[in-house]
Amino acid sequence: MQLGFVTAIFPNLSFEEVLQFASQERYDCVEVMCWPEGKAERKFAGVSHINVEGLDKARANDLLGLCENYKVKISALGYYPNPLSKDPEEAETARNHIRKVIDAAPLLGLSTINTFIGADWTQPMDVNLGRFREVWPDLVKYAEDRDVRIGIENCPMLFSKDEWPFGKNMARSPDVWRRMFEHIPSPNFGLNYDPSHLVLQLMDPIAPIKEFGDRIFHAHAKDMKIKRDELNDRGVLVFDWATPKIPGLGNVDWGLWVSELSDVGYDGPVCVEVEDEAFMHDLESRKQSLRISRNVLRPLLG
Known about the structure:
By secondary structure, the chain is of the alpha/beta class. The chain has ten helices and ten strands. It has one domain: TIM Barrel (Alpha-Beta Barrel), CATH 3.20.20.
């Protein structure tokens, strides 16, 4: 497995500066954020270290030259919007940009992009599954035609009152994944597996790996800390009794997680995703979060 990190943690650094840091800290790869230009509507979104708008082979070669210079690879291109939003304009914008990210991947010699399925958070699961069946076959076919795989992150996107009660990404559980893959059995359609989102839902973050191992194209390493006293005091519906942490500071057993991934033959990227508020004070704190994460994960990954 290759150890990497998600570039969203460095919104103010250039692509070259991100690669320089990754090289200095012995990271193998980075998942590069590719949001369109414009104001971000949520935290950790809106970061773009590669602008895929109008990306051509000459510019792609320049970017690959930087990767070669710093000996750091790109694990995947990342863009996490809501392509099933109840707002038709938002949904269409998301789908159009996903296609642009897919187009960019082959220019950069990449086989994987990561994103969300999305959801209309005001509607129940059956309605969202119906919209998924209308929208996603064409997106997956678009990727297939370009030899690109789509990894869906399993974040429920349910962190605020605006996203209650359904969340903005329906691909949150094994039950939903089965139905997704039953309808779209394409080998180009899979998961960007993040254990923290299962811990958030009080689910086992390791058990699904055995069933879905061949669908895991990419993995995020983010931990989740369950504040049991607050959970016991306020109940499961409040959702502020859990907080994202860097690997090793939450409830995920990283040794067992990596062990299960290796048992199913996964040998792809494991990219640290930092959303830990304890390390958001300044640039040096963010860098330190990745140093600590590296020290936790590197002995397990080799």
